[in-house]
Amino acid sequence: MAADLYASSPSELKERLxxxxxxxxxxxxxxxxxxxxxxxxxxxxxxxxGRRPENxxxxxxxxxxxxxxxxxERAGGEWTIVxxxxxxxxxxxxxxxxxxxxxxxxxxxxxxxATLLVYRAPDEDPAPTAVLATATVAPALSATQRHALVxxxxxxxxxxxxxxxxxxxxxxxxxxxxxxxxxxxxxxxxSKFSIPDLPHNRKxxxxxxxAFSTGAVSPREL
Length: 222
Known about the structure:
2 domains, Tumour Suppressor Smad4, single chain, Arc Repressor Mutant, subunit A, alpha+beta, six-stranded antiparallel sheet
C-alpha cells in the first residue's frame, strides 16, 4: 500500500508547519480518536497535565492518567518535565521513568498514561554531540520499510509502564524476515528520518518519536 496513505493529512501537516514557524516549543500527540493535537507550551512558568478538565493540558480521553499527572516547568529558557510522584502510573521520557525534573530536548518521546507525545523545540540549538532530527514530513517508504516501522513502534502503543520499541528479533518474527534483513531496513529508516548517531536504544526511540510526530505511523495502526 502506498506510503502516503499513512502520512499526515495536508491540514495536519500545515498545522504543524505553522506552529514550527512561530518558533515556540510545543507537544504533538493524537487523541483517543486518532486526531492530531498540538499544545503550545508558550511562555508560562508551570503547566499541569492530567485527566481533570482543570489542567492546562487535559487528556480526558486517557483513563490511565492521574487527575493531575505531571507538570511542565520553564526555567532559564528551557522546559522540563516534572513528576514528583503524583502520577499513579508514572511518566516516561524516552523510555525511562521520570523522577523529579528532567530537561526536555527537541524530538523527545513522552509517555503519560497510555498517551504518546513528542516534544518539539523549533529554535533549540542542536546538541553538541549530535544534530537532532527535525523532520516534519514523513519520507516515502517502501511497503516493507513501513511494516518494519509499524512493528518497531507497536510496543509503545497503549503501554502504561516502561516499554521499549520492538527488538530486531520481534520485528523479524512478526514480518517473517531474517534479523539481518530487519537491521538493513532499520538502517534505511534511520537515514530517511535523519536520525543522528545516538546510542542504540535512544536511536530507536528517536525513530519512534519521528514516526509518530510526522504521521508516518498512526496509533490506530498499532
